[in-house]
Design a protein that fits this description.
Ubiquitin-like (UB roll); alpha+beta; globular
């Protein structure tokens, strides 16, 4: 199956602007998607999210997913996953 992954913002010490499609097995989870996208991301983002060292907003087809349970969420063909890291400033 194919899902779309978009990541914007500073994550794991780098500023990411990624918009890609990823091929996965049926019933793959968000964690499996992030592992499959590791070459494009440059790190295993799922491991960082499980440790709690990153706190981005994760949207699945526009719906907010709560960490860390979001990592075990099953994905479907055509799902759109958006990961945004909030930044502060003044």
């Amino acid at each position: 199956m194919e899902v779309n992954l978009t990541i914007h913002g500073p994550i794991a010490g780098q500023v990411l602007r990624l918009n890609t499609s990823v091929q996965l097995q049926e019933q793959s989870t968000l964690a499996q998607l992030l592992k499959a996208a590791r070459p494009q991301i440059g790190t295993d983002l799922s491991a960082l999210l499980r440790k709690g060292s990153e706190h981005p907003v994760i949207l699945l087809c526009g719906e907010y997913l709560e960490l860390p349970t979001a990592l075990d969420h099953p994905l479907k063909e055509g799902d759109e996953i958006v990961i945004l890291q909030g930044i502060g400033g003044g």
